[in-house]
Amino acid sequence: MDDARLGAATEGFFSGAEGTPIDEAFNLDVAELGRRYRDRTLSPAEVERGLSARIARLDPELGAFTALAGETARAAARQAEAELAAGIDRGPLHGVPVTVKDLCLTRDMPTTAGLRGFADRLPRRDAGVVARLREAGAVLVGKTYTTAGAFVDPAADRPFPRHPWRADLFPGMSSTGAGVAVAAGLCSVAIGTDTGGSIRLPSLCCGVSGFKPTYGRVDAEGVFESAPSLDHVGPIARSVADLAAAMTAIGQGESRHPVVDLAGVRIGVDRHALEQTGSKNRGAIERAVGLFGELGLTTVEVTLPLVAELLAATGRLQAWETAKVHAPWYPAHREDYGPGLAATIERGRAMPAGDVDGFEEVRATYRRQLDALFGVADLIILPVLTIDTPTLDEWDGAMRHADPLGARFTKPFNVTGHPALALPGGFDAEGLPLGFQLVGRPADEALLLGAGIAFQQASDWHRGPPRALS
Fold first, then answer.
1. Average of per-residue pLDDT across 310-334
2. Catalytic positions, please?
3. pTM, whole model, 2 decimals?
């Protein structure tokens, strides 16, 4: 975008004017936003004011937010501006607007976990990931919608967020608000959680990029648990470069720069898995494989291990762990729980502890099988869902069936802790987003993110703005 066009766009953006094109005003990635902060052509305080106006205009219809930081965000933006002017640079997220899922404890906003009984819960302390964001100078503008307890039921007393591309489409769950907020240009980075696909599913549905890091890579302390053995915390953003920037701030341990030389990298394709997804997303994966080939990656045929036993054992473990998490409130406050979460808790409460004794053996077996697969491939490309993005009505119908949306492609990597990256992969005939996921070796996130960055440098599908916002 040239400076004249940017200036015209941001003039409307900072005044909160109606009709400002989203692809003009909100197409700055984290690195470009940072450059403009540092050369003083934009300021964090201006961006926060303009973003607040945009949220006020769009979010009553979208429903991405459960709480807004208000004056706390304004103060953080002013502080970031003053620090940068004084030569104090906290890194790539300094002054950048971010959100966190309404599972993360925040000292200045309630944390409801989508449950009615927690509506007034103000913990007055920050989760570990929130503390890291603040230390990095990020401007926390608000908290985003989660389904009840990060499970399948809608949050209590709140309408389900609207899909930013087409109102009747399912926007994904349980990090629903995070995906919607990023796609609609209401933040640069959104922190979500993923227990069985809850970062990758909204990313696919909303046409944005989402990263489930290696298990434990991002501190989960102070994040309301769903099933602790499976829970991951990670970012959603427009681009993989923005995800990588976020990981430098929130990741524990040493951060490696994304790999830039992909020559000879092997990408595994499971043809049988491709047959188990919708035709639109299958086409997106086939196009992506071709583009990765042009980037120098070598395609190898692989066969994923069978997942039936793993998913059955994981279902038992998840029910048992979820029941333990909710024991302080359930069944005493049964009326605050939706039917899906309540059924899972009841299943867990009825289980003897011995029902999960064999889980670690099943997990270890599956990990060994994946280790063998990663001996012949460096990355694996997979669908996120077994179907194309459904409408809300189709989702409601599908929820009555076991494993309707293909946990077989997402949950196994929550069990094993492998990092997974959801990427936009084009558009269907109606202009709606398609996508896929890449899976990498544990702790080898530099290669995974590097491949995603290279893919997006060679394509522009991640830059397509929703055209349905009104």
1. 95
2. 101, 174, 198
3. 0.93
